[in-house]
Design brief:
The chain has 13 helices and 14 strands. It is of the alpha/beta class. The structure holds pyridoxal-5'-phosphate.
C-alpha cells in the first residue's frame, strides 16, 4: 500500500475564509443585530455580486443584471421554476447527467422532469436536443446545466426560448462570473462550500427582469410583503451569517481563480504523457475549474474508481451514473437527441439503450481530486498512478 497523501483522500475540499477574516463581518452582525431577512450583509453581497457580473457583461443592452440571494442553489432552481409558471405536472426537460438537485427542484415546483440525453462534445443538454424534444412533446420549461462549471452559450438558449415560447432556467451552480447572463433565461448559482465561490451554503438567482427578482424575493419570505401574504411562498432566505462569508469571499476571489488556474495548468502538464489515453472536459478553459473530469478513451471509469483505494486516491464519478440509473429517478421518462421519449415505466435496459451519450459518459468519465490544497507532487502522483492503472 502506498503512503496515503492526505490531500488526495478527498476529491473536493472547501476553500473558505478563515475565522479571523470572518470576524469583522460577524461583528457587524453584533452591531446591527440583524441576523437574516435581507439584512445589510445580504444586501452588500447582492450589490458586490451584481457589480462583478455587470463588469464581465458583454450585453449591457439586454438590460441591467438583477439578482437576489437565496438559501441554496437548489432553492434558486425550484423558486425560479415557480416564477416561470410551470403548471402542476408540467414537463421540465433536464439533462440525464447532472446533480439530483435538478429533477428534485422540478418536483418541488410541481412539475415532472424528463431526462434528456447529453451531447457527446459538450457533455450536456444542447438547445438542438431541446428543440427536437420540444417538437414532439409538450414542455413547460427547460433546465440546461453548465456541467462541472463550464458555461453555456446564451445566444442559442435565448433563441430557443424566443422561438418556442418555452422558458429556460440555467443551472450554473459552479459557473459564477463565467456564465454570461442571457437576455431571457434565468440563471441559478451555488455558494455551496465546495464550489469555487463558496459561502458554506447559499445561492442566488440572476435575471434581467426586475419583476421576476422582486417576486422571487417575496416568495423567499413566505410570499409576504409588509407581513401580508400576497402569493404562495416559502422560507428560502440566506442568513446574514452566510452573507458574511460571501462578502468576505470577494476579497479572496481573484486569488481563488488564480490558484485554480494554476492547479489546472499543473494537471495539464502532468497529463501530457497520457494524451493518447484520455482528454479533458471540452470548454474547461472557460470555467473556473470546479471539478476536474477526464474522458478516458477506454470504457474503464468504474475500474479506475474501484482501484482508487489501492493507490490511496479519491477518484470519483460526480454526476454519474445518469439519473435514470438512480433508484429514486428510475421512474422518470427519458428522451434522446432526436426527441423520442421512453415512458416512465419502461425497464432500465430500454432507457439506457435510448440514451447512448449519457451511457458513454457513465463508462468513460472519471474525476480526479481537484482543490487548492494539492501540491504539484500530489498532482504528479495522481497522473502517474492513473497512467499505471490505465496500462494494467
Ligand atoms: C449542477 C448542480 N446543481 C445544483 C446544485 C445544488 O446547489 P446547492 O448545494 O447550492 O443547493 C449543485 C450542487 O452541488 C450542482 O452541482
Amino acid at each position: 500500500m502506498p503512503q496515503p497523501r492526505p490531500m488526495l483522500q478527498k476529491y473536493l475540499i472547501a476553500d473558505l475564509p478563515k475565522a479571523d477574516a470572518l470576524l469583522p463581518f460577524l461583528r457587524r452582525i453584533d452591531e446591527t443585530r440583524w441576523h437574516t431577512n435581507f439584512g445589510p450583509l445580504a444586501t452588500e453581497f447582492e450589490h458586490k455580486m451584481r457589480d462583478l457580473l455587470a463588469a464581465v457583461d458583454p450585453y449591457p443592452d439586454f438590460g441591467a443584471i438583477r439578482l437576489t440571494t437565496i438559501s441554496t442553489c437548489h432553492h434558486a432552481l425550484a423558486v425560479g421554476l415557480r416564477m416561470l409558471h410551470v403548471p402542476q405536472g408540467g414537463k421540465v426537460l433536464v439533462p440525464a447527467v447532472t446533480f439530483p438537485s435538478c429533477p428534485l427542484a422540478v418536483q418541488e415546483a410541481g412539475g415532472e422532469a424528463i431526462l434528456g440525453d447529453v451531447d457527446p462534445d459538450t457533455w450536456t443538454l444542447t438547445p438542438q436536443t431541446a428543440r427536437s424534444i420540444a417538437e414532439k412533446n409538450k414542455l413547460s420549461a427547460v433546465m440546461p446545466v453548465a456541467i462541472y462549471g463550464v458555461p453555456l452559450p446564451i445566444e442559442a438558449w435565448d433563441e430557443f426560448q424566443r422561438d418556442t415560447g418555452i422558458p429556460v432556467i440555467i443551472d450554473a451552480a459552479a459557473a459564477i462570473e463565467r456564465q454570461i447572463i442571457p437576455q431571457l433565461a434565468l440563471v441559478a448559482h451555488s455558494l455551496h462550500a465546495t464550489k469555487p465561490f463558496g459561502a458554506g451554503e447559499g445561492g442566488f438567482l440572476v435575471s434581467r427582469s426586475q419583476d421576476i427578482i422582486d417576486r422571487v424575493r417575496i416568495y423567499s419570505n413566505f410570499g409576504t410583503l409588509d407581513r401580508i401574504s400576497v402569493f404562495d411562498g416559502s422560507n428560502t432566505k440566506m442568513s446574514e451569517y452566510h452573507a458574511a462569508v460571501g462578502v468576505a469571499q470577494f476579497e479572496r476571489w481573484q486569488a481563488i481563480k488564480q490558484k485554480r488556474h494554476e492547479q489546472l495548468s499543473l494537471y495539464k502538464k502532468h497529463l501530457e504523457p497520457l494524451a493518447s489515453s484520455l482528454s479533458l472536459q471540452p470548454g474547461l478553459d472557460q470555467a473556473v475549474t470546479s471539478a476536474l473530469m477526464l474522458r478516458l478513451n477506454k470504457p474503464v471509469a468504474a475500474e479506475v474508481i474501484a482501484a482508487g483505494p489501492t493507490v490511496a486516491i479519491a477518484f470519483h464519478k460526480m454526476y454519474l451514473p445518469p439519473l435514470y440509473r438512480h433508484p429514486y429517478f428510475a421512474n422518470l421518462s427519458v428522451a434522446n437527441q432526436k426527441g423520442y421519449v421512453i415512458a416512465r415505466n419502461a425497464p432500465l435496459e430500454t432507457k439506457a439503450a435510448h440514451m447512448p451519450h449519457s451511457e458513454t459518459m457513465f463508462v468513460h468519465i472519471v474525476g480526479v481530486p481537484f482543490h487548492p490544497f494539492l501540491e504539484e507532487e500530489d498532482i504528479g502522483y495522481v497522473t502517474t498512478s492513473l497512467q499505471r492503472l490505465l496500462a494494467a
